[in-house]
Design a protein that fits this description.
Layout (H helix, E strand, L loop, with lengths): L2 H19 L18 E9 L2 E8 L13 E7 L6 E8 L6 E3 L4 E6 L2 E10 L5 E8 L7 E2 L24 E4 L5 E7 L1 E7 L11 E3 L4 E10 L2 E8 L4 E7 L7 E7 L10 E6 L2 E8 L12 E6 L23
Antiparallel strand pairs: 1-2, 2-3, 3-4, 5-7, 6-7, 7-8, 8-9, 10-11, 11-12, 12-13, 14-15, 15-16, 16-17, 18-19, 19-20
Bound molecules: beta-L-arabinofuranose (FUB).
The site of beta-L-arabinofuranose (FUB) has 13 residues, from strand 1 and strand 14.
């Protein structure tokens, strides 16, 4: 190879690396957002044995479009909270024959060795959003429709005129084995689930929570129940505490501020290997990201001695690896 050709190849390689340096490849491999090659939204996390499974929506709206386009849910796993392995997408709206589209927020929970994936989705024949359930023998799927119809439809909740109040399911199983489904937009609903996890067991109840927008997440720690949710719009994350899963809930204030460059702020709270984590999304993956091109982040969550939650400090560094 002559000297001129060598110089040309070296310059081309430099040009290519400069071009790539202007894409997300220039972001540090670790730190927030934790997934850098796709837009991931509406995180839910499940701790199962020694692994955290992260389930997200997938924002695929064309660049510049200011509305959601979401057709599938994604799954990642980690044993140290820093290295995330992507699994093939285990669930798509096509799994629900009765549904139209819109793979909105979801949550996966394990019961008796089965994994139940509760999803918000647009119904094909009943106007509005609905909640469906998929089931699998593995946290990474494949998942199939568990009922063959929606668990919740818009006509089952008539207190608000909006057609998207039946979204953002969150299932919590109490120490006595009773499962509860929380969900909602504008109004926070909850209902008991039967032991089969795919039927309601009793009436749909409403909670009175200040400025409830959406995205309830319920967890329990040291005898306290915590109900955190997205508040106002643009959304902050706030929480309430109670000594009983059915309330009364005491409003405790803000956990997380407006999340950079996104008008929604969907979250999950988990404990793993002795630490607590706040999993959320921002619109901060790239300068042209935003409310419809969101990305999942994770930061540490700390409690005060009295059980109240300290404000989250959102970081670009993210969390440290746990052993
Ligand atoms: O991703 C679509 C919707 O935006 C979710 O269902 C809400 O929680 C909000 O994040």
């Amino acid at each position: 190879m002559n000297k001129l050709r060598c110089l040309f190849l070296a310059l081309s390689a430099t040009t290519v690396s400069v071009l790539f340096a202007n894409t997300n490849d220039s972001l540090p491999k670790e730190g927030n957002p934790i997934i850098k090659d796709k837009f991931t939204a509406d995180p839910a996390a499940l701790v199962y044995k020694d692994t955290v499974f992260l389930y997200t929506g997938h924002d695929v709206a064309p660049k510049g479009r200011a509305s959601y386009e979401m057709h599938e849910w994604l799954c990642y796993s980690s044993t140290d909270m820093v290295t995330w392995k992507e699994h093939p997408s285990p669930l798509n709206v096509k799994a629900f024959a009765w549904a139209k589209d819109d793979a909105w927020a979801s949550q996966v929970i394990e019961k008796d060795g089965k994994f139940y994936w509760y999803v918000a989705i647009s119904h094909g024949s009943i106007h509005g959003k609905a909640i469906g359930v998929a089931v699998s023998n593995s946290p990474t799927g494949p998942f199939i429709d568990a009922i063959g119809k929606a668990l919740i439809t818009n006509d089952m909740t008539t207190d608000t005129k909006i057609s998207w109040d039946d979204i953002d399911p969150c299932v919590f199983i109490d120490d006595d084995g009773q499962a509860y489904l929380f969900w909602g937009n504008t109004i926070c609903y909850y209902a008991k689930l039967k032991p089969n996890m795919i039927e309601l067991d009793g009436p749909i109840n409403k909670l009175s929570l200040p400025n409830f927008t959406e995205a309830p997440w319920v967890h329990k720690r040291k005898g306290w129940y915590y109900l955190s949710y997205s508040y106002q719009f643009p959304e902050k994350t706030v929480y309430a505490m109670s000594k009983s899963i059915t309330g009364p809930w005491q409003f405790k204030g803000i956990i997380n501020e407006l999340a950079g460059n996104s008008n929604t702020n969907h979250h999950a709270i988990i404990d793993f290997k002795g630490r607590s984590y706040f999993v959320y999304h921002t619109g901060a993956l790239a300068a042209d990201a935003g409310s419809f091109h969101r990305s999942v982040c994770i930061d540490d969550l700390y409690y005060n001695k009295d059980g109240t939650i300290k404000r989250i400090i959102m970081t670009t560094e993210g969390v440290k690896a746990v052993k």
